[in-house]
Amino acid sequence: MLERLDYVKIEPQRILDLGCSRGASFLDLTARYPSAQLIGLDASPAMLDIGREQRPGWQRWLGLGKQSGPLRLAADAANLPLKSRSTALIWSNLLLHWLDDPLPALAEAHRVLEVGGLLMFSTLGPDSLKELRAAFADGYAHTQRFIDMHDLGDMLVGCGFADPVMDMEVITLTYDDLDAMFAELRAAGSSCAMKARRHGLTGRGTLAAARSAYEKMRCDGKLPATFEVIYGHAWKVEAKQSADGRAIVRFDLPRKK
What we know:
Radius of gyration: 21 Å
Number of strands: 7
CATH superfamily: Vaccinia Virus protein VP39
Number of helices: 8
Order of helices and strands: EHEHHEEHEHHEHHE
Shape: elongated
CATH architecture: 3-Layer(aba) Sandwich
Oligomer: single chain
């Protein structure tokens, strides 16, 4: 995502890091846009608090206190506590796949962006953790529901964004055993939150069968875990229709000679 900003010519006055978690992107965004106001928003107050305590080195070097640096807000991505057209860049790294329906969050992003503003995001696609889903054959959900990038593109257009650009890459991580993968997913907070998940303990037989099925996928001595990473960005332009569906026609004043 940061590399993609190299091709974007903007000088934002306000940036919203949507789903900022502990603030891992703060340093890079501040370095790239030092004059911009940076707001980090996350649904988890605990994550925001950890980010305040674990101040990055650039804050310590400057002697900034816990209240200095980016503004942190605990709020819902589908109900942003920001004024309409108040933000120039919305940056959202690996948030959307956590939402039951990303459409309201995308609509809110469009609302708070100023005309000419940019939404840039990453999320996980349908092939993510496909090996884990295949290994469990118990009828329960064991991963999040990941949305196809084409559907995300349609959502962006439906919200009023212009010129959405979507692309993806596949990253395969490898592990010595299944427990190592589970530990890393838990450490990242990546447990399954789907309603269709098993709400009780997984039985020994079910887990043993999943381990055996996953072992058959071992390649070069390692267990693979696929992640389909989707990248997207889109711009906010002047609306062509009013809220009630009427077309908006704009007339530019003639230039003075």
